[in-house]
Amino acid sequence: MKNENYLTFIAIIVAGLIIGGAIIISGNDFSVDREIVEEDQEREVIEEEEEVVEEAERVDMDNIELDGWPSLGDSEAPVVMVEYSDFACPFCGRFFEETLPDIKENYIDTGEVHFVYKDLVVVGGDKAAEAAHCAGEQDSFWEYHDLLFENLEEDRGNWSDPDIHASYSRELGLNEEELVTCFEEGRYVEKVQNSTEEAIGLGITGTPGFVINGEVVRGAQPYEVFEEIIERELNR
């Protein structure tokens, strides 16, 4: 009888140890599982943060003077696109050659975009800008604009010389004397300076810089970048 009681006692102790061990193991397993879940949650948060697209940089269009600036397209168009540019800037030349023609064909000529050109002198195109505005007095700003970019590499070091602008005037069939007089008088020095200061005040310090219905685009981006923004604005 004593042996049976002893064996029963031993069995109870062994069973208790097994149960206790199971609880300990179970507790440890729970702890491990919780750590795994927390790691998975943290990983998901990190991945979600990486997937978040940065909010577009925007400025108030009311802070941009549009009246009296050269423009293309319908002034009542739903999308207003402002370019801040420097005639001496190679990247501005790239935008002129590679991107503006497509924007003009697909959006400006269709009445969906009003395109406004403004000055931001950062690499020395101030005299070219002044001359272009002088050409604007003869309703030829855009012709002069195109000619300046077409001759950027060859002529940009000579744009302070009235003779180069006299030559451009003859090439475009403008009144040479009127344009040169306007240029030498510095009639548009202040206009160019004010536009440059406006751009800097908006935080746009490099050329080309763009504002499309308030959204800022920096640099000579591919056509597809402008297309995406314009389409988004048209579909609002």
List the helices and strands and how they pair.
Layout: H1 2-51, E1 71-72, E2 79-85, H2 90-108, E3 113-119, H3 126-136, H4 141-150, H5 152-155, H6 162-172, H7 176-185, H8 189-201, E4 209-212, E5 215-218, H9 223-234
Parallel strand pairs: 2-3
Antiparallel strand pairs: 1-3, 2-4, 4-5
Description:
The chain is globular and about 50 Å long. It is built from nine helices and five strands. The N terminus is likely disordered. The chain has a five-stranded mixed sheet. It has two domains: 52 residues; 174 residues, Glutaredoxin (3-Layer(aba) Sandwich). Helix 2 packs parallel to helix 9, helix 3 runs antiparallel to helix 4 and helix 6 runs antiparallel to helix 7. With 236 residues, the chain is of the alpha+beta class. It starts with a helix and ends with a helix.
The share of residues in helices is 55-70%
Largest beta sheet: strand ordering: 1-3-2-4-5
Known CATH architecture of the largest domain: 3-Layer(aba) Sandwich
**Global geometry:** globular
Counting DSSP E segments of at least 2 residues, the number of strands comes to: 5
